[in-house]
């Protein structure tokens, strides 16, 4: 392989079981953050730019299948095999509320205005919890036709998107009526669904295919066949010229959005890749794998001269996060013994 096309990712260790979901916060005054869900039952929060571990959310009793952060990265939400979805204080690690379910929770998502939490799972029920009245019963949307795999909001929280584990298609629900208004047809179950940062596209991964849909008119814009079964795909958020996709063959592939041509192919994981997501500025993307690691890859060096790696956005959009800013985020966080010893070491060396 041409030497300049080999990318060396940042490797983030910490999880003891497969990493099954990743979520980047938007850019906040304190930078941006990455949360990961794992079958080890311990979601982790990291500095989104450096990959540095900030803290571990401790409290679930089973595999955690889904995770997300609210718009300000003040709160986290997780969905678990312990039949619960939890809301966490992302600055302290405290559990703010636990919503009990009757079966495994596979997916969760904060509304854009951060007032509601959407959950779905094996129960085949979509629930909307009012976070301003967490003890009130949730609103239940019309029954899902199958076990829910993914959920997200779009159209300024007027529409809900969901896919199922055991059947193809993406269903779009009107929040006001609780009814399905549109179905995006796919041959295989959709394992990943992402609304682009500008709200124009819905990116889906199903079987050997990555598809891009018009998020407003719901027409199919582009469909590309992949070299292997893909589990996740993500569109570069700043320019939308590239997308990444990954799955069972352990490779992370970068493609041209307009042509579908493969731009780069990176290997580093030692197991199937379950999730890929671009950082909010598009300069990096993260992958989570069966091997228990998260890898953060530079978007830029794959197409630029190897002597001077730059970000896809020319380096102008990078968010620099100072130690003081990160310390504000982690102050009071419940950190593990490993984190405490690291903190002590840093204080001694200061």
Give a quick account of the main beta sheet: strands, pairing sense, barrel closure.
7 strands, antiparallel
Distance between the termini: 43 Å
Q: Looking across the biggest beta sheet, what order are the strands in?
A: 14-15-16-17-18-19-20
Query: Which regions are unreliable across 5 or more consecutive residues at pLDDT < 50?
Result: 301-332, 334-350
Question: What is the 3D shape?
Answer: globular
User: Do you know the CATH topology?
Assistant: Methylamine Dehydrogenase, Chain H
CATH-wise, what's the superfamily? YVTN repeat-like/Quinoprotein amine dehydrogenase
> What portion of the residues fall into strands of 2 or more residues?
over 45%
What would you say the CATH architecture is? Answer: 7 Propeller
Q: Report the order of strands and helices.
A: EEEEEEEEEEEEEEEEEEEEEEEEEEEHH
Note the total helix count: 2
Helix percentage range: under 10%
* Mean model confidence by pLDDT: 88
Count of extended strands: 27
What would you say this structure looks like, in words?
The chain is mainly β and 350 residues long. It has a single domain, classed as Methylamine Dehydrogenase, Chain H, CATH 2.130.10. The protein contains two helices and 27 strands. It has helices spanning 323-330, 337-349, and strands spanning 10-12, 19-24, 33-38, 44-47, 53-56, 64-69, 75-80, 84-89, 95-100, 105-110, 116-121, 126-130, 139-141, 148-154, 159-164, 168-174, 179-195, 201-206, 209-214, 220-225, 230-235, 242-247, 251-256, 262-267, 273-278, 284-289, 294-298. The strands form six sheets. A seven-stranded antiparallel sheet has the order 14-15-16-17-18-19-20, with no helix packed on it. It has a four-stranded antiparallel sheet with strand order 1-27-26-25, with no helix packed on it. A hairpin with a 5-residue loop joins strand 6 and strand 7 (75-80). 45% of the residues are buried. One of its GO terms (molecular function) is RNA binding. WD repeats lie at residues 57-98, 98-132, 266-298. It comes from Coffea arabica (Arabian coffee).
């Amino acid at each position: 392989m041409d030497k300049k096309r080999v990318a060396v990712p940042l490797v983030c260790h910490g999880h003891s079981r497969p990493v099954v979901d990743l979520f980047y916060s938007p850019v906040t005054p304190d930078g941006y953050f990455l949360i990961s869900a794992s079958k080890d039952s311990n979601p982790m929060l990291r500095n989104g730019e450096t990959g540095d571990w900030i803290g571990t959310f401790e409290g679930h009793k089973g595999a955690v299948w889904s995770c997300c952060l609210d718009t300000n990265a003040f709160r986290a939400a997780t969905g678990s095999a312990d039949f619960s979805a939890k809301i966490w204080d992302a600055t302290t690690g405290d559990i703010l509320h636990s919503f009990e379910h009757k079966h495994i929770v596979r997916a969760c998502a904060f509304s854009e205005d951060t007032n509601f939490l959407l959950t779905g799972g094996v129960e085949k029920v979509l629930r909307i919890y009012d976070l301003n009245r967490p003890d009130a019963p949730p609103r239940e949307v019309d029954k899902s036709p199958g076990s829910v795999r993914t959920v997200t909001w779009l159209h300024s929280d007027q529409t809900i998107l969901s896919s199922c584990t055991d059947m193809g298609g993406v269903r779009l629900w009107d929040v006001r009526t609780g009814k399905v208004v549109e179905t995006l047809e796919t041959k295989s179950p959709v394992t990943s669904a992402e609304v682009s940062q500008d709200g124009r596209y819905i990116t889906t991964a199903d079987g050997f295919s990555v598809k891009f849909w018009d998020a407003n008119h719901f027409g199919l814009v582009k469909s590309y066949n992949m070299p292997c079964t893909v589990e996740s795909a993500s569109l570069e958020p700043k320019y939308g010229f590239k997308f990444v996709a990954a799955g069972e063959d352990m490779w992370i592939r970068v493609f041209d959005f307009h042509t579908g041509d493969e731009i780069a192919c990176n290997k580093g994981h030692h197991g199937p890749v379950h999730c890929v997501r671009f950082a909010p500025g598009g300069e990096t993307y993260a992958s989570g794998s069966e091997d228990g690691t998260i890898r953060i890859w530079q978007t830029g060096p794959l197409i630029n001269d190897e002597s001077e790696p730059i970000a896809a956005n020319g380096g102008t959009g990078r968010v620099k996060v100072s130690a003081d800013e990160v310390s504000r985020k982690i102050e009071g966080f419940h950190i593990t013994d490993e984190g405490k010893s690291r903190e002590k070491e840093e204080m001694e060396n200061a």
